[in-house]
Specification:
four-stranded mixed beta sheet; C1GALT1/C1GALT1_chp1; glycoprotein-N-acetylgalactosamine 3-beta-galactosyltransferase activity; Fringe-like_glycosylTrfase; two-stranded parallel sheet; 5 helices; nucleotide-binding; nucleotide binding
């Protein structure tokens, strides 16, 4: 994680409008702070790192457990989120349904998958399935490979979690993985 060049800007901007923010990295950093994950650094381990990030809310030793009323957003250190818009969008959704949202790409996964670059949101039920079923069964959720978002998309499909449309009423995307022009 690029704490001084990227994550610090997340911390100083949109993260201030979140109910709960957890910064996670392969290295624990008390002063930032980050939660250290037991994952080897490197591109081949991105899927494993993302899966550990999403598992963190289910850790029974974690004092911040059960903080997820609507679900959880996974965002990288170069993602910008307008929290008010995200909350408004999610307010019409049922967190008990097995769904997730993000910028849809179609190759590799039948229902498509949400691009990791623009971040994605898992409903509370999607997180429950992932935490209780997915990580315990590598045939459902593989943690190996460089395409973290494709792995997660296949995992969600295997857990019968639907990638739901996140387009607005003008058919515009709400999650963006490309640089603005």
């Amino acid at each position: 994680m690029n704490l001084d060049t990227k994550a610090i800007h997340v911390k100083n901007t949109w993260a201030k409008r979140c109910n709960v923010v957890l910064f996670m990295s392969s290295v624990h950093n008390e002063s930032f702070p980050t939660i250290g994950l037991n994952v080897t650094e490197g591109r081949f381990h991105l899927a494993e790192k993302s899966m550990q990030v999403l598992l963190h809310p289910f850790d029974v030793n974690n004092a911040r457990s059960v903080i997820l009323k609507l679900g959880c957003e996974k965002a990288d250190d170069d993602t910008y989120v307008i929290m008010e818009n995200l909350r408004y969008f999610l307010s019409a959704e049922d967190s008990g349904q097995p769904v997730y949202f993000g910028q849809r790409f179609m190759p590799h996964v039948t229902q498509g998958y949400a691009s990791g670059g623009g971040g994605y949101v898992l409903s509370k039920e999607a997180l429950r399935r992932f935490g209780q079923l997915g990580v315990k069964n590598t045939s459902l959720c593989s943690k190996y490979g460089i395409d973290e978002d494709v792995n997660m998309g296949q995992c969600m499909a295997n857990l019968r979690v639907s990638l739901k449309s996140s387009l607005d009423f003008l058919n515009r995307t709400r999650f963006h993985c490309f640089k603005p022009e």
